[in-house]
Amino acid sequence: MTDSSQSNKARTTASGAAEINPKMSAKTALFWDESFLWGLIAYKTLSAVGADFDLVTAADIRDGALDSYEILFVPGGWASNKIKALRPDGVERVRSFVKNGGSYLGFCGGAGLALAHENGLALAPIGRKPTNMRVPSFSGKIKLRELASKHPMWDGIAEGSSFYAWWPGMFSVQEIDGIKTLARYGEPEEGSYVADLVVGPSVDWEKHEKEYRTNLNPARIQGEPAVIETTYGAGRVLLSYLHFETPEDSLGHTVLLNMLSYLGAGKNRLSKKHTLDSQAKAAPSPVTGDSAKAVTAARALEAAALDLIGFGEKLGLWFWRKPWIIQWQRGVRGIEYCTLYIMLRKLSELVAEQTDDDIDLGSALEETYPQVLSFTGDAKKLLELEERAIGQGYITPLKSDDPEIQALREKLFSNTKSFGGSFKDILDKIDALVLALLRGR
Q1: Both ends of the chain: CA-CA distance in Å?
Q2: 8 A C-beta contact, residue 341 and residue 304
Q3: In this structure, how many other beta carbons lie within 10 angstroms of the beta carbon of residue 99?
Q4: Collapsed DSSP state (helix, strand, coil) of residue 318
Q5: Per-residue pLDDT tens digits for 362-393
Q6: Of 75, 4, 1, nearest in space to 274 by CA
Q7: Is the whole-model pTM more than 0.70?
Q8: Which member of 33, 116, 324, 326 has the lowest number of beta carbons within 10 Å of its beta carbon?
Q9: Which residues contact 220 (CB under 8 A, 6 or more apart)?
Q10: Which of 42-56, 259-273, 347-361, 385-399 shows the lowest mean pLDDT across its residues?
Q11: DSSP alpha helix (H) spans, 165-204
């Protein structure tokens, strides 16, 4: 990764590699809270393409940090958890930022956060379609059509280009003034997935929808809005259920940088110097001590999570689809286990990079280790029970007739789709350590 201070817009060369373009100078705040896997992906991609950004937390926003930025970029994650992290005063800070001329860029969960619903910021006067009206489990590449050809975000992008969607929501768009649909979904590429079914011409979607008891046919989303734009006060709001920051997607990265350039064009909102870097360095370190202790502890945590991933692979419940995401069977949770491992892998990498013996995370990591071991032990029991239940009939990640399965699920994850239970407790601790280390780079 390049340092985020090496800013400015990138463009793609003939080989598809990103190259810095000095025209892009807008300072971007990357919202960290409740993003986890998607926050790491956004951080990696923005760093790699040379965007000018800082990591900003809900607490920073409540303290007025957005005064120093032109763009607020909110990556994926559960909108319901993000708005809880912001709290009412943070919500008002974001609204004021955009109303006074700031730009809001939201991908997937970040897009959902901007909408007008119980867990939304109401920056866009539209809602989201309920689960029973969308295809909630699509993942992979999908073509776009009806691109707003004159819009700067599509500079260099051909009609029908494909981009990644990862379990997207769907906009419920009314035909009202001020809402622009910048692209619509076209056909999915073969090799994409809906739940654990590979998209292809021979799939009997009607049959599988009856079996899975949910919407699966990707034709249901064709023609639906994928990217929209509106205004809120003097600010721009650009929302996408596509992940243009997906790793190794050079075409998507071109779109992302076009977006940042467009949203930052003509902005001159800075009322004070950027202070977040100094604030981050002044933030207390989790613990102090011997750095070798931290490296050992971090590697042990990573190994425990990797062992759990391998256990699920042996049961045939998932496989590695890409280096950062697994593909799992219906009936079990997958994104949670994957997120835990990727976050711990990143933590281990960051701890190994530390050179300051006065900032050692060993004690904090050792305190987390028994929690992780307890979680992975219970998770293995749950996965064995779920693998057996899948062989006997229909189950979902939230509902099972087996009381032992239900009890373990509630303990580990709570009884909702969004992150909860002991999983969330562990993830929050890891997330805080990762943030501290990233800011200390």
Answers
A1: 11
A2: no
A3: 15
A4: strand
A5: 888 989 999 999 999 999 999 999 999 999 88
A6: 4
A7: yes
A8: 116
A9: 134, 135
A10: 259-273
A11: none
Separation CA 61–CA 74 (nearest Å): 12
Whether 251 is in a domain gets the answer yes
- Residue 315's domain comprises 285-439
* Tokens matching residue 106: 């939201």
Question: How many other CB atoms are found less than 10 A from the CB of residue 249?
Answer: 19
CA atoms within 13 A on the CB side of 320: 9
Say whether both 192 and 300 belong to one domain: no
Residue type, 115: L
> What's the rounded Cα separation, in Å, for the pair 305 and 380?
11
Query: What's the structural domain count of the chain?
Result: 2
Two tokens, residue 411 = 């303990």
Amino acid identity of residue 260, one-letter, is L
What is the spatial distance between Cα 5 and Cα 11, in angstroms, rounded to a whole number? 17
Cα separation values, 63 from 266, 302, 395, Å: 25, 34, 45
Cβ proximity of 328 and 195 under 8 Å: no
Cβ count near 117 (within 10 Å): 15
3-state SS class at 147: coil
Residue 388 or 357, more confident = 388
Give the sign of the dihedral formed by CA 352, CA 354, CA 355, CA 359.
Answer: negative
The amino acid sitting at 361 is L
229 and 319 co-located in one domain: no
Residue position matching structure tokens 């994926």? 76
